[in-house]
Design a protein that fits this description.
- The complex is a heterodimer of chains A (123) and B (108).
- In chain A, strands 2, 4, 5, 6, 9, 10 and 11 form a seven-stranded mixed beta sheet that branches. Chain A has a four-stranded antiparallel beta sheet with strand order 1-3-8-7, with no helix packed on it.
- Helix content of chain A is 0%, strand content 49%.
- With 108 residues, chain B is mainly beta.
- Chain B is 0% helix and 49% strand.
- Chain B contains no helices and eleven strands.
- In chain B, strands 2, 4, 5, 6, 9, 10 and 11 form a seven-stranded mixed beta sheet that branches. A four-stranded antiparallel beta sheet of chain B has the order 1-3-8-7, with no helix packed on it.
- Chain B is globular and about 35 Å long.
- The chains are: A mainly beta (123), B mainly beta (108).
- At the A-B interface, strand 5 and strand 10 of A face strand 4, strand 5 and strand 10 of B.
């Protein structure tokens, strides 16, 4: 059974930093790209960042480029999202998700999701 | 960026109704489209991918169709467990990957 367990969400002041982690189990972690998707309170889903299976390629939505960094640790089966210069508009539940097709080149849909971790940016 | 537009935003229906949700892309995405269901306070759940392929374990009352810029999600006979918000998502390469704004299916 695939399990994705996010952690690291917290209340942080504007301009602050936070590191989210996602512990993965139940599948061949090194074979799948991984992603972060967020959902602001009462709003829809927004894709944030993705990382290829090897970690060699990373992708970001424009609003977080230069502020967020995605990484993965193949020895620990974790994917991380380092967030800097946080803004009020970054307030959201952040979901870690597994890309559905291990062979797809950038054809990323998401077949397993964690329960999410809440990031609140407020003074 | 490819914009995804769902309609309606809210849908009121009764148990047993046939329900159809529409998703339009701002440019052609072939059949690179997924549908998700999200219940209140829960993570999204993948229902269909490649526009019409049913994810394992998803009831057969869910079906998807379309290609290019026009797609539909149909629930053939609405069940109590189906009241939720539904999202489409395009994954035509890295555009970036974008979701529709969601369609909430409510009890009539």
């Amino acid at each position: 059974e695939v399990q994705l367990l996010e952690s690291g969400g917290d209340l942080v002041q504007p301009g602050g930093s936070l590191r989210l982690s996602c512990a993965a189990s139940g599948f061949s972690f090194s074979s799948y790209a991984m992603t972060w998707v967020r959902q602001a309170p009462g709003k829809g889903l927004e894709w944030v960042s993705a990382i290829s299976s090897s970690g060699g390629s990373t992708f970001y939505t424009d609003s977080v480029k230069g502020r967020f960094t995605i990484s993965r640790d193949l020895s620990k089966n974790t994917v991380n999202l380092q967030m800097h210069s946080l803004r009020a508009e970054d307030t959201a539940i952040y979901y870690c998700a597994k890309v559905g097709d291990p062979s797809a080149l950038l054809l990323y849909y998401f077949d397993d999701w964690g329960q999410g971790t809440l990031v609140t940016v407020s003074s | 960026d490819i914009q995804m537009t769902q309609s309606p935003s809210t849908l009121s229906a009764s148990i047993g109704d046939r329900v159809t949700i529409t998703c339009r892309a701002s440019q052609s995405i072939s059949t690179w489209l997924a549908w998700y269901q999200q219940k209140s306070g829960k993570a999204p759940k993948l229902l269909l991918y490649d526009a019409s392929n049913l994810e394992s374990g998803v009831p057969s009352r869910f079906s998807g169709s379309g290609s290019g810029t026009y797609f539909t999600l149909t629930i053939s006979s609405l069940q109590p467990d189906d009241f939720a918000t539904y999202y489409c998502q395009q994954y035509k390469s890295y555009s970036p990957w974008t979701f529709g704004q969601g369609t909430k299916v409510e009890i009539k």
